[in-house]
Amino acid sequence: MPSYTAPTRDMQFILHDVLDVSEQDIPGYAELDRDFTSAVLEEAGKISSEVLSPLNPVGDTEGCVLENGVVRTPTGFKAAFDQVCEGGWTALDLPEEYGGQDMPYILGTAVAEMFSAANQAFTMYQGLTHAAASAILAHGTDQQKETYLSKMAACEWTGTMNLTEPHCGTDLGMMRTRAEPQDDGSFKITGQKIFISSGEHDMADNIIHLVLARIPGGPEGIKGVSLFIVPKFMVKEDGSLGDRNGVSCGKIEEKMGIHGNSTCVMNYDGATGYLLGQEHKGMRAMFTMMNEARIGAGMQGLAQAEIAYQNALTYARDRLQGRDVTGAKNPDGPADPLIVHPDIRRSLMDQKSFIEGARAFMLWGAELVDRSHRGNDAAAEGLISLMTPVIKGFLTDEGYDMTVLAQQVYGGHGYIEEWGMSQFTRDARIAMIYEGANGVQALDLVGRKLAQDSGKHVMAFFEVVKTFLKENEGDEALKKDFLDPLKAASKDLQAAATFFMQNGMKTPNAALAGSYDFMHLFGHVCLGLMWARMARAAHAALEAGTPDEAFYKTKLATGRFYMKRRLPATALHLARIESGAEPVMALDAEAF
Amino acid sequence: MPSYTAPTRDMQFILHDVLDVSEQDIPGYAELDRDFTSAVLEEAGKISSEVLSPLNPVGDTEGCVLENGVVRTPTGFKAAFDQVCEGGWTALDLPEEYGGQDMPYILGTAVAEMFSAANQAFTMYQGLTHAAASAILAHGTDQQKETYLSKMAACEWTGTMNLTEPHCGTDLGMMRTRAEPQDDGSFKITGQKIFISSGEHDMADNIIHLVLARIPGGPEGIKGVSLFIVPKFMVKEDGSLGDRNGVSCGKIEEKMGIHGNSTCVMNYDGATGYLLGQEHKGMRAMFTMMNEARIGAGMQGLAQAEIAYQNALTYARDRLQGRDVTGAKNPDGPADPLIVHPDIRRSLMDQKSFIEGARAFMLWGAELVDRSHRGNDAAAEGLISLMTPVIKGFLTDEGYDMTVLAQQVYGGHGYIEEWGMSQFTRDARIAMIYEGANGVQALDLVGRKLAQDSGKHVMAFFEVVKTFLKENEGDEALKKDFLDPLKAASKDLQAAATFFMQNGMKTPNAALAGSYDFMHLFGHVCLGLMWARMARAAHAALEAGTPDEAFYKTKLATGRFYMKRRLPATALHLARIESGAEPVMALDAEAF
Predict the structure, then answer these.
(1) Are A95 and A137 contacting, i.e. CB atoms less than 8 angstroms apart?
(2) Could you tell me which residue ranges the Acyl-CoA dehydrogenase/oxidase C-terminal domain spans (chains A, B) (predicted)?
(3) Pick from B203, B199, B197: which is nearest to B81 by CA?
(4) Is B325 on the interface with A (CB under 8 A)?
(5) Beta strand pairing status for B206-214 and B157-162?
(6) What are the residues whose beta carbons fall under 8 Å from the beta carbon of B41, sequence distance 6 or more?
């Protein structure tokens, strides 16, 4: 059975050596000193390894079962959920007045990576609750906050998000679910939603569905969509639960993975709902959830790559097969461990260098979220808004590929469910799809975010890179291995952006045909930047005579690998982008 | 439910327009005129679509069940197997004296692509039978051929290959299964084999296991391994079946995919076996099977990509979502079909251009097999031996990636088992692992094949490319879009080979660290070559005033896409290769 050890050392390095969190002028960050974050991370790591990880294969094997309208989650999930909720883990960054701990999002992100790595399907129950609570916090009335938030922070009630319908996912303007206004100010919601994660289950007393629906008479398309709170059980004035509302689970989907999470068809039959935010501005309110969920999905890509890598590494050290061509490393044994073989190294280094770069990128992104939300910093908000599709699309694509590499290390055993490696790939696969399929992320990035505010945000990104390069230009230790490759990669990204600017207005397809490559090109530059920042921090620690020399030297070697072997992918993406729309759009739809 | 339409038109194009098969001086090829191959392919296509494809999800859902030592295959498999056997499909290229049809391997390959695409798990029962029959044909005594081949050609008896043991897969020198010589010349086989595809089932009267085992007293390691024929039921002098032999299925593995094929743990408890080929030369005999199985695995990668693509294309045309940014294409409908979106096109073109290039590569490879076996052409044998790991590794890696792209087109529905797209990825995944994991293919390519006979075979490959370029150098229609990119890609491959030659002797790891990239670089050049050959054929047809203009124009556009957007990957692979061993091997095993 696979195991999981939380990467607390690496997280501490990023938080303190690289991002220097406790020195940042972001409200709440001063408290984030090394001891404090260490205590939180160690504790979260323990729960991940000891409670959540052992339940991961159980969830995969048993799945969720719908019987007589009730969904039974896998053995052990309820008890673990209670334990996680009691520990206050689900409300880490929610306000204290609702029972939260008001900690920065960055810490919640680090914890969420651990929980997700240990058990993605399980963690989704909390993750969606958190996202729904955030939307209510941002858009709810005082009364709505009062009614729902404390219960959700405590995970006594969980949350869901209901967007997709059978005939529309990405194109929500086609939505049919109706919300009929009632005399008491509430609405009657009628329609069917599909792919609702955690839609029905037996782990909480109530489920708070956030549902997109159309108020009759409103504008056509996406501009006529509103968001509603639809509780599974009606909530009485005193906060106690009343009658069952008119919402039910019609079916649990048979999926490729995340079997421990109940993915439901939800039927709304005149269910009572309450408007959240303004009429017809449902998408705006939903985007509070969506943005959080997108960053969360990116994190899942990283998380599955991490646990898959950990187990592949263990296997590569244990499994004896073949001999080192340069001379036996285990001469007394029947063969050398797999890890002596260069191609196994190549695979492990691909994984390791992606994971550590992605983690830094993720946590830098979380810092920007905090800077934006807690510090009301519009520039930070612009930057993270630009990078959200990159975090989502790039980290889930690459994260998935890494789980496939990790599975491959096991040879035939990787294909046998008993060994657990297949689950990591099957679970990781969903993150490329949900919260906006990655193609939609690329469209969001190139079609919307790139040109937003006259390209201000992407220019701010280039400024970040340029400033870093400038600040370190005299640093000979960094130059060849880190600064030069970063500069080259960033130049590719700029060339791609320029190509879009020059061609995109006249031929929108010239930009859109390259959108997916641009998302990956951007992702590589972000990881290149993070590796350069990490290398600087590692050099600084080594120069300061750190007692933990091995850690920092390993960090530098891993970074050099990324810059040498992964980052040059930017040139390929640029070549593809610069080939323009013609090769992609040459065929008529009928000609395929 | 997914559907399948055999790509007979494309196969005919490759066989006749590109490879010009009936004009080749290979025994048996003269018969392969257009009408004949068309008749065979149409008939095989019909069985694939109507019989095998509908059973594919059945096999996935039901799997195989072991009860009281008997394996029950999925509903309908036995009847379909009988139908396929009666049609003589499994013995297409076996000699007539054993009931085969003695057709060239190239035709069998085209048929196998169809069967595999329609139902990979099912087709493995025949595929392994064919591979085992080939080994007996090549290495068996007259009596062994007499005893087994007719029955196997008719699929009354099926075959298996038994290599892997729990503690060794790639490193077969560690094998423990013993073969004790008996007075009558037979052997008693004792040991455990794992991952035995089609190891036990209810579709045939007998199963002929080919088993690698060690004769006590023989040389250590791989040089002391011999190959044995171990029938499930003993075969009497008159060919009728006698007692059950001492071999049994201990367990069916729970796998990620190919659930319709029984992957068995096989226990040999003093089972009677007969030496096949020479003592201690088991690997040589097994490699007759292995080489065939490796090419077959590459074909499976292509085949799964094809069926996944076909269904993704249908979905992209049917599913209405969003609008074409350049103006509505379906103005009367609620939205435009997915296929209008450039990023969906990018995905479909990636798939289509890979598949058609891979199919041509595959069939060219099959031609070389025929030229080698039927024509006794040593140069052809050298070339196909060099390219076998490329066919296996590149086509299965890329084929898998294409199934993932195809699944992605479905959005959320791609993750739901009911839609069938998940099965294609799960089934395709195994082909990267079995018959030698792809890392082992890369090792075989760079560590063995490249330098074999002083690099003669790779030089022969470059000669093929150079000759093609030379023959067509005046062709302006081909130059920019096809010849120039092929030349550039081939130069990258040569540079990589040169790098290995200059560094590999001194630092073997410098070659091995780049082996995986080399395999992919080689694969791209092969597909680039095939696209250039296909483009030439398409131009010729258009100049000759073909009535099927649309087909050839589509072919050219698809080829241009490959050359522009896929082939430039060679530069990235070269950059990775030229970074050498240092980045890959920098860390001690303990430092990870």
Answers:
(1) yes
(2) 281-444
(3) B203
(4) yes
(5) parallel
(6) B6, B8, B11, B12, B110, B111, B114
State how far the Cα of B383 lies from the Cα of B380, in Å rounded to an integer: 5
> Residue B274: phi, psi to the nearest 5?
-125, 130
The rounded distance, in Å, linking the Cα atoms of A314 and A301 is 20
Q: Which residue of A has its CA nearest to B579?
A: A564
Our CA dihedral for A103, A109, A112, A113, rounded to 10 degrees, sits at -150
Query: Mind telling me how many Å the CA of B1 is from chain A's nearest CA?
Result: 14
What tens digit of pLDDT does each residue of A131-168 get? Answer: 999 999 999 999 999 999 999 999 999 999 999 999 99
CATH of region A159-280 = 2.40.110.20
What DSSP element (H or E) covers A450?
none
- Using the structure block, give the residue that is written with the tokens 């053995």: A75
CB-CB neighbors (< 8 A) of B578 in chain A: none
Query: pLDDT tens across B102-119, in order?
Result: 999 999 999 999 999 999
Q: Is the dihedral angle over the CA atoms B161, B164, B169, B175 positive or is it negative?
A: negative
Contacts of B543 (CB under 8 A, 6+ apart): none
Backbone φ, ψ for residue B174 (5° rounding): -85, 5
Known active-site residue A435: yes
Read off the tokens for A134.
Answer: 């955030």
Residue B589 is nearest to which of A257, A339, A579, comparing CB atoms?
A339
In DSSP terms, A207 is beta-bridged to A158
- Residue A90 has what pLDDT? 83
Residue of A341, A412, A437 lying closest to B434 (CB–CB):
A412
Residue B290 pLDDT grade (very low, low, confident, very high; cuts 50, 70, 90): confident
Mean pLDDT of chain B: 96
Any CB–CB contact under 8 A between B343 and chain A?
yes
Q: How far, CA to CA in Å, does A324 sit from each of A48, A554, B217? A: 36, 22, 27
The pair of structure tokens assigned to B277 is 């080929």
**A525 with A489: CB under 8 angstroms?**
yes
DSSP B221: G
**Nearest chain A CA: its distance from B197 CA (Å):** 12
Cβ neighbour number for residue B51 with a 10 Å cutoff = 20
Residue A66 contacts B, CB cutoff 8 Å: no
Predicted pLDDT at B150: 95
Contact list in B for residue A317 (CB cut-off 8 A) is 589
Measured between CA atoms, the residue of chain B closest to residue A588 is B554
d(C-alpha B232, C-alpha B271), whole Å: 9
A163-200 pLDDT, tens digit per residue, is 999 999 889 999 999 999 999 999 999 999 999 999 99
- What is chain A's Cα-based Rg? 24
Q: Which CATH number fits domain A8-142: 3.40.50.10470, 2.130.10.10, 1.10.540.10, 3.40.50.300?
A: 1.10.540.10
Query: Minimal CA–CA distance to B227: which of B174, B167, B288?
Result: B288
pLDDT in tens, A467-507: 999 999 999 999 999 999 999 999 999 999 999 999 988 89
Task: Quote the radius of gyration of chain B (alpha carbons, Å).
Answer: 24
**Nearest Cα to B427, choosing from B410, B403, B405, B408?**
B403
What is the ipTM metric for this complex?
A: 0.97
